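Quarterly update from the structural biology core.
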Amino acid sequence: MSDIPKTKLKERLYSLDTLRGFDMLWIIGGGALIEKLSEYTGWGWLEPFANQMHHSSWVGFHFEDLIFPLFMFISGVAIPYALISKKEKGVAKTDLYKKIFRRMVLLVVFGFIYNGMLRDGWENLRYASVLGQIGIAYFFAALIVINTHSVKTRIYWAVGILAGIAAIQLLVPVPGHGAGVLTAEGSVNSWIDQHFLPGRLHQKITDPEGLLCIVSATSVTLMGAIFGTIIRRKEVDMMRKTTILLTAGAGLIIIALALSPVYPIIKKLWTVPFNILAAGISAVLLGVFYFIIDVKQKRNWILFFQVIGLNSITIYMGKRVIDFMHASVFLMGWTRPVFGDFSGVILMATYIALEWAFLYYLYKNKIFLRV
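Predicted structure, tokenized:
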């Protein structure tokens, strides 16, 4: 289920594997470890970092809000390596369509399973999911990439999607609320989900992975694909690629912040400024990782993150099924009477270590589950 394409080693972006692992670390316990360290040590300098490990309540942006769109951006960067390379080798478009459609269906199904379909059945199932959004957004972004030939055309598509979302969110009136209301109760996102999204909504009246959110998030994946296309170009100097990532990313951040006073940054609605800001920060992060790892080839520190990144969706699903915390308590529960409250830090660190050991076993045995 890894997003790593089956490409030749020379086309492998080590920075992309590493950045994916860095992103997943926060999902599999890194954020909780920071919180526990802050809580149990009382180190004041950690408190601001711990506060960033929670989603913004509505308007605003925390580091936690970046984790999901960063993963979608990364999946977009991989599209030229996974699909365009095959297209250049003469693989028929119909075969590529089948590949991305199969991926989408599998991720939607995995999303159902993650949400408890096997445990609870279909009754009151939440149909929307993180994995489903990744799969659907990837499908449509990949369709655009497969059927276009230039970065400029793909930029037009991204701008068109963003403009369309902005028009819907700001201009379409919601019965009883009017147009441009960006609250959980009055947003067009919520109205669409309440009327057209089957099953249970995550937040009862709205869903952060709802129908309009999926369409909106497609722009983040597509922006990742645009940057991925640039990075893959052999005729462009690697330092030039780094400059493009950093400057374009910074430009997107400035645009998002400039729009935010009149069009708020809201992760739960995937507003246009949120998408632009998330893509901008993602591009800057990729630029930093790309410069260090692929340009300067300083790779002696990346194994820890690569092990996570090469089986990212595997651990996302695996931690839902395997009770790593139970194993952590079984091995380190004796620290509770010895270290008191600080044992919470030890247990969480052990939890992450067990997850990593599981992934390292897969890595050493070359087991990479793919979608």
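The chain has a mean pLDDT of 94.
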